[in-house]
Amino acid sequence: MNYLRFRKLYQADNDGTFWPGYIELPDNDTDSEPEEIDPKKNFNFLSNPRVYTGVALLALVTLFFLNKTTALILLVIVALIATKEWFDIFEYGIMLPYPLLLYASLAPLIIVYFYGYENYHIPFFIFPLGVVIYTGTFVEFGIYEKFGSSFLFLVWFGTGLGAIGYILSNFGPLITYLLLISISLSDIAAYEYGRRYGKRKLAKNISPNKTVEGFLAGLIIGVVVNFFVLSNNLELTFTQSLLLSVIFILFATLGDLFESKIKRSVEVKDASSLLPGHGGVLDRIDSQLLSFPVLVFFLHFLDLIQ
To answer: pTM for the full model?
Structure first.
């Protein structure tokens, strides 16, 4: 049982008796894990709030990405909401106050959007360090949640948002929008195909409803769309466009699983209930936060970033 969960149980049971906060901890953490649901049961496409929310989100994002300035404003709004969602998930475990966490997570976006890629490498290359810290370095010292969750958010969310901002600044709102859409189409294909035909679990202990069949369907659709975007807008060969598209969509899937693992560790299903059927803003951008930094890295490696 991790430190954050202990604190939540402690607070809930602290009744001011002779042994304040004394609780009996569950012997097995798996007893309270979220119940796996079967998405094939009682599904009605037209009555599913996920559909209407998705259409509304598509319209909203399309409207904001008509030009670079409004797209940047949307990214800032995303940061405002996503930072609050993260803060609420780790209610007892955030070391930084919300305004400071927000400013720090916005810093990479502002830096790379206005000042260029040469200032972007620092947060990008310390991302693995954030993962290491979150996944165990501080677990034995009682500051696992407080420091690890704060630091991880800064390098994970900040780096991802900065990468999206960099693509926006250097390649324009249309290409950025199409890359975002390629991930969304991949998600839709994976969800729908997996719901109908999925049999084998992709990562049962992390995200029980994801299937291998759905993953492959999402990979194919995402790669096709992404290949079309890259090959028609960037100076890439056929092979480079194909390989980069595969890598981009693979890391989008890993980003989704990464956030699912974090949520599962604190026993929450969604980052929030802001978007009916989709969860919170973090639940909608988790894939992009990992795939866009990888895209920026490979574009730099191929000398397409000056």
So the answer is: 0.77
